[in-house]
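Input C-alpha cells:
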C-alpha cells in the first residue's frame, strides 16, 4: 500500500462488480498466513466489503501486483542460534485516527520466539482514541495479552524462555505503562483495559471500577 494512502467509504465511483471484490479480498486473507507483510493492507481493504469503490479496487490490484512480483517471498522458520532460555520479543504500534470515516485507530503487533515470527495481527480499535498515547496504549495492552497467552503455551510445553520484552515507540505510553497508578486523565480507559469482571470488582477493595461501589 502506498505510504500515507487513505481509503474512504465515499468520494469515488462504486465498483461495478462487488462480488469479484469480495472474492479476491477473501482469498487475500488466506495469503496473510504466510505473507505477513500484506496483513495491514489486507485489513484495510477488508473494511469496504459491503460497498467497494474504484479506489478500493485499485488498492486491491496493487496488493496483487506486489504478490506477483514477490512470488518467492514467504515465512521461514530457522533453528535458534542460541540455546535455552529462548527470547520472547513483541513489537506493537498503532496509527492514531487514521480512518477518515470514523477516526478509529488500527493496532498492530508482531511476536518473535527466538528469531522466528510466531504471531502477528492488525486490528481496528473498538473505540476512538482521544490521543496518540491512548491509541498506542491500547495496542500495547493487546500485545501484552498475546504475549501472556504465548507464555502460558510455552509453560505447558515445558519450553524455557527468557523474560518477555515488548517494544513500543511512544514515550508517553511507556511512561504510563511503568506507572501503575491510574491517573485521572486515563480513567476512561480503565473499564475496558483493566476491569476483570463484576465478581473481582466487588471482592477487591482497591478496584476503582464503578461496579465495586454498587
Amino acid at each position: 500500500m502506498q505510504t500515507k494512502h487513505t481509503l474512504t467509504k465515499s468520494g469515488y465511483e462504486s465498483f461495478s462488480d462487488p462480488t469479484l471484490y469480495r472474492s479476491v479480498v477473501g482469498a487475500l486473507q488466506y495469503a496473510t498466513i504466510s505473507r505477513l507483510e500484506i496483513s495491514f493492507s489486507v485489513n484495510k481493504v477488508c473494511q469496504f466489503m459491503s460497498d467497494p469503490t474504484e479506489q478500493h479496487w485499485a488498492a486491491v490490484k496493487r496488493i496483487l501486483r506486489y504478490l506477483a512480483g514477490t512470488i518467492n517471498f514467504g515465512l521461514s522458520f530457522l533453528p535458534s542460534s542460541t540455546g535455552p532460555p529462548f527470547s520472547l520479543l513483541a513489537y506493537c504500534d498503532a496509527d492514531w485516527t487514521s480512518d477518515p470515516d470514523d477516526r478509529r485507530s488500527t493496532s498492530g503487533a508482531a511476536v518473535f520466539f527466538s528469531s522466528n515470527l510466531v504471531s502477528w495481527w492488525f486490528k481496528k480499535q473498538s473505540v476512538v482514541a482521544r490521543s496518540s498515547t491512548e491509541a498506542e496504549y491500547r495496542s500495547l495492552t493487546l500485545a501484552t495479552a498475546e504475549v501472556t497467552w504465548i507464555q502460558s503455551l510455552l509453560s505447558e510445553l515445558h519450553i524455557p524462555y527468557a523474560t518477555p520484552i515488548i517494544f513500543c515507540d511512544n514515550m508517553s505510553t511507556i511512561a504510563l505503562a511503568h506507572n501503575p497508578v491510574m491517573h485521572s486523565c486515563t480513567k476512561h480507559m480503565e473499564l475496558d483495559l483493566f476491569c476483570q469482571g463484576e465478581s473481582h470488582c466487588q471482592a477487591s477493595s482497591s478496584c476503582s471500577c464503578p461496579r465495586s461501589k454498587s
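The beta strands are 88-95, 106-113, 116-124, 165-168. Confidence is low (pLDDT under 50) at residues 197-206, 210-214.
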